[in-house]
Amino acid sequence: MSHPRPLSPRRWAAWLLALLVAIGAACAQAPAEHPAAAAPTSREPSGVMPWEKAAWLEREGRAENEKPELVIQAMDLKPGMAVAEIGAGTGFFSRRIAKTVGPAGKVYAEDIQPQMLDLLRQHTAAEGVRNVVPVLGTETDPKLPARGVDRVLLVDVYHEFQRPEAMLAAIRKCLAPGGTVTLVEYRLEGDTASHINIKHRMSVAQVLSEWTAAGYTLVRRTEDLPSQHVFIFSARRPPA
After folding, report:
1. 190 DSSP 8-state letter
2. How many whole angstroms separate alpha carbon 232 and alpha carbon 220?
3. Of 82, 201, 210, 214, which residue is most buried, by most CB within 10 angstroms?
């Protein structure tokens, strides 16, 4: 039986060099993994928009750009429902919701700035909307009736919450059995919301990581709006 002759030191060095070159080429062709490229889940709350800038909430073209009718459709409202808008501002959405739920329904328009609620009252009076109830809340409590709200809406306001964990817990307590929360936030992903300050945008990963940890279940998500995510949540566990 014949045995192969051992490689000479020169041939051994040449073979090892060729092997290292081949390994290096394979690594160069393999796709690099960049964990940082994934949408970040950690974030810092943005500052609260002051009431002095409330004109932004009633700006010309907002209805065309944000399509509130699609948000209201996603909420699955019924006449006679009790609905709360948290961070209602001037009532841009609250006034529209009030007309949808009708005179037998009620809209709690919550905000932490009393000046915003004064502006809201002016707008509802001008439009003859009578079933909107202004509510002055706090950073940790929207001051809504326990188990008394069928639908909750937050539009481009959650990212401003300075105490999000406490607020999410308080929101769960106000939900009636079968109630849902609709959350609207400008997209962090892509460039559809590039006209909005990045501190006022959120990714899907950020929203889901915070809301699921707070006891909510995603019912559905839509991307029908030009620049914003729409999430529909239910409470995963009954509020305490």
Report:
1. S
2. 5
3. 201
